[in-house]
Amino acid sequence: MAACSSRSGATPSNQRAPSKTLVASHMAWLRGPRMATLPSYQSPSTKVHVADCAAVASVIARFRFDAACLVSLEDALAGAVNRHQADFVEASEAQESDQVCNRCLHLAPPALKTVAMHYVAYVFDAYGTLFDVHAAVRRHDGEIGPDGQLLSEIWRAKQLEYSWVRTLMGGYADFWQLTEQALDFALRKVPSADKGLKAKLLEAYWRLDCYPEVPAVLKALKASGAKLAILSNGSPEMLEAAVKSAALDHVLDDIFSVDAVKRFKTDPSTYDMVATGWRLYPGAVSFQSSNRWDIAGATKFGFRTVWINRANQPEEYRDFPPALILPSLEGLLSGG
Question: Which SUPFAM superfamilies does this entry report, sorted A to Z (predicted)?
């Protein structure tokens, strides 16, 4: 049961049920959907989707709000509107999809987030999201020479390309094999790089640095009561080594490797490992990845998604948008 609080001075929510008129008017008020200009929330010229009835219904269904929570939710919405003196206008098109509903809620004023924004589980992609995939090459930059960055980018691009091609053709090989094959290609493609460094680079890949904010963010989410996991293309051995090297093993509840289904992301079976393994509706899971293609796949599956756009890349896959875009994981602790 999700926790709810009611307006100051009102009857406690566990003793109070909403009238049918109240609920009906609440849903009618939200229907549309509506848009609002919230001067103290974003710039005065910014119009923000606040919520619609489908979004509220989705939250109630996912997080098992009881009847009294409807009252508290309406209280929070009304309070937010009053505080911000929001100006509502009709949106030009209906916004009925689950992905848009999630985005509406995430752009809502803080008072609405306090009631509605709770996730049972936070699941993270590993490589590029928690762990810096370019750390292996940087560790040996002095020996590689001036083309180290190019080598690293080709290595990563081929690693991903091989995973997609093998899934499409049904020829699975574990991620460590693909990582080694991708490095072989990168070393051939960049003649200035010393091929004798292959063993050192592969060894460094087992102990990639995590991004600076990762330990603190995961600890804070764990302390909030949420379940935490990794969902990654990495092999079980690779992930175990990376997690232990970064001292994250004590905050993670689970590590999901696609090796269990022998297919790589974005195949739906990879995301379903979390929903099935933890017996959760997809919408109860917040999935974070730095890879926009991964966010598209997870959004299509039904996860609430957060794109960690570390490299400030342009938007793509616009028909499968994330609920939120952040430059790092730190934003998860401030209402994300």
Answer: HAD-like
* Architecture label for domain 119-336: 3-Layer(aba) Sandwich (3.40)
Q: Are strands 34-37 and 47-49 parallel, antiparallel or unpaired?
A: antiparallel
The pLDDT tens digits for 93-140 are 433 334 444 444 444 434 333 333 468 899 999 999 999 999 999 999
Task: Place 336 in a pLDDT band, splitting at 50, 70 and 90.
Answer: low
Is 98 among the residues known to form the active site? no
SS3 123: strand
61 DSSP assignment: H
Of the residues 52, 125, 174, 259, which is catalytic? 125
Domains of the chain, by residue range, sit at: 13-116, 119-336
CA 60, distance to chain mean position in Å, is 21
| Residue-level length of the chain | 336
In three-state secondary structure terms, 147 is: coil
| CA atoms of 122 and 85, how far apart (whole Å) | 33
